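Q: I'm writing up a methods section and want to include an example of the input and output format. Could you take the sequence below and give the corresponding predicted structure tokens, formatted cleanly so I can copy it straight into the document?
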Amino acid sequence: MEWIIALLFLVLVALLISSGGRGAAERQRMARIAAIERKLDLIMDNLGIAEPVPPAPPAPPGVLEELAAGRKIQAIKAYREATGVGLREAKDAVEAIARLRGLSPR
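A: Here is the clean output for your methods example:
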């Protein structure tokens, strides 16, 4: 019985040691990606290339009309009714639709 506890302890220690190395490797990988992104941004700036704008998410019926009238809450309700998503997802989608279409919700 004691040897099982000792074995479990050794396995736990081995897992803790191996997971510590993964964190450092992940940080190093993220730093390298950030450096590549900075270089790519400089190249794009130098060539005068703008980052592509993602297309506006499709607007269910009634959402654009509510946004155009300045009724953000009603637009969110219409989006939720049409798509069945949660409140947070609907709010984010409606704000993205408004931002990408030049409508300013209040």
